[in-house]
Amino acid sequence: MSEKVLLDYGSGGRASQRLISQLFLGNLGNDELNRLNDAAELAVSGRVAMSTDSFTVDPIFFPGGNIGSLAVHGTVNDVAMMGAIPKYMTCAYIIEEGLPMDDLEVIVKSMAEAVEHAGVLIVSGDTKVVPKGAVDKIFINTTGIGDIIVDPAPSGDSARSGDAVLISGTIGDHGLTILGTREGLDFEAEVKSDSAALNHLLVRLVQELPEVHVLRDPTRGGLATTLNEITTSSNVCCELNENALPIRPEVKGGCSILGLDPLYLANEGKFICILPEAHAEQALEIMRADPLGQDACRIGTMTDANPGKVVLVTGLGGKRLLGMLEGEQLPRIC
């Protein structure tokens, strides 16, 4: 293959076949994908969760990951938030003519590592190459599907007054990493993305706990926006304890300098867990036993005081409303 991706690689001819067989099947191949049918034959049972997403992150390489691993993690996590075991994925690439083949190879190999760790199979895919300037380097679309293993499944409209609000770890890491890498900023301490597949931890959580009302990953719009979505859907209020929010000092310092609020920065390896108060400590024990949940903590409580609102109780005892993110604090974050 050439050193750069050429339009020929999207033609469907010999060049396309070389790219598929040598790069994609060579790294992502499995019994189903290797059949190269127009559709995959899947084995699922009962209720299923399905999610689709497109990834356009800029830059495509960043500390802690790249667009390939991010695409796998994002889709696996979305399926797992429904109390499901992710099983299958599809993957479609839209590649800009001239993308270095070495870059594409790194992206595909990182996807292969990510799906192996998550325990899912990429069973169908597509590749398009477009003229230079039609896209920025590479965009990736993925769809995931998995078996729901709990009934009822966690849902954004299921939060109840009195529920405990937990977070699996520190917030704002991914968003600040992308901004710092994009703008060439040099922070005093290392900042890297938290991008990770959370499905193994989430499966243990829903299997061992008798009741989980909501599971959500606070990606675009961050923690504050995601909680607003939940409170609106569930018609309850979320009271957050500012002193309990887990934010790394380097993230807090970077946000202070740049005028950003970590509550609105994207996260790609964290999840919100909302469940009855009686199960909160057990949930934290399960989360903290996993490396991806070692910084888990309780950050708030659901109440019926101000339905549909998110209220931050400040360190001084005051209260302020946290609204939905207005505009785009940081575009192309995932």
Automatic annotation (TrEMBL):
Residues 38-146 form the PurM-like N-terminal domain. Residues 160-311 form the PurM-like C-terminal domain. Gene3D superfamilies: PurM-like C-terminal domain (3.90.650.10), PurM-like, N-terminal domain (3.30.1330.10). Pfam families: AIRS, AIRS_C. Belongs to the HypE family. This is Hydrogenase expression/formation protein HypE. It comes from Pseudodesulfovibrio portus.
